[in-house]
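Exercise 7 asks you to align residues with tokens for two separate proteins.
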Amino acid sequence: MTEPHVVGVVGSLREQSYTRVGIERALAAAEDMGATTELLDLREFDLPVFDADQREAGDAVAFADSIHAADSILLGTPVYHGSYSGVLKNALDYCGFDEFEHKTVGLLAVAGGGFPITALEHLRSVCRALNCWVIPHQAAVPKARNHIADGRITDADIEKRVAKLGEEAVQYANIEPDPPCFESTENVGAED
């Protein structure tokens, strides 16, 4: 079997993004486990606001192709108003079952405040609707300004959780997919 390919999506547009630091650390851990990796930094993609009549706008095809080529996908987001970022939502809207179904997905949320969990729950629901297998372990970085500095995670416990996410993205990259869940069978996508 070939080594798994893990992509990490940075759902933040900030120049000094804490989310990027987290995804980079998780991808480094995946590489240490023998995976090939690719960082998909949404700052580098031209993805206009999704319009179902313009599914191939900008860099949409290139982004979707990178997701499709992955065995495991790490989704990283800052927490905005208790949920995941609009830029990540927009990027995910350019994808569907072709890119995500039966893929392993790991979740990372980074918050300025102390409670990043709801963003992870929202992303988990989106992934279920796309019939992904979401890693039970998830990583959260609360009060990120206190735990990330100079491009690295400074809190040992948080760093360990983020690294574990990357390791499990490799460990479960080729897990036998579950039968379609209720959410995915009822998700007709953006066809209407």
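Second protein for Exercise 7:
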Amino acid sequence: MSRAIGEGVQAKLIFPTQAEADAWMAEMSAKLEKRIPDEFMRRKVLTAVQYEATRAGLDPQLVLGLIHIESGFNRYAISPVGARGLMQVMPFWQRVIGTSDQNLLDVNTNLRYGCTILRHYLDIENGDLFRALGRYNGSLGRAEYPNLVYGAWKNNYVWNGAGNSIAQR
């Protein structure tokens, strides 16, 4: 996990063709226009989500659903218990897999941590997304949070383009 966090690579869309990347960006950008009005920031967030999710073997639309529930796409969100950024990453993860100088409110850093952590939980739970989401939220064994994320994912961020089969359930 630490190695995944430490690899500072510039985010870019990863699709088999540029046409597919353009189609995904256009569709997801339209879905997020009200939540992230600034087009530059919206494209930056979407590019980072798609890159980090794909890099971690996650469906980018699942990650969008998780962000929808966790922070409502507020990159500066800080929860009452101290979770930070889009994916609401707890600062203790910096000690566990990163370094204290990494800014969890930075879009790319936050997404790298969040996707790496969710992938870790999926691995622990042998691919069981429901249980992995429960672990991510600290609510393992309770259905509310996994159902909220799954609902946000399926109701708001479904994309039927090619190459959309990573970590779906």
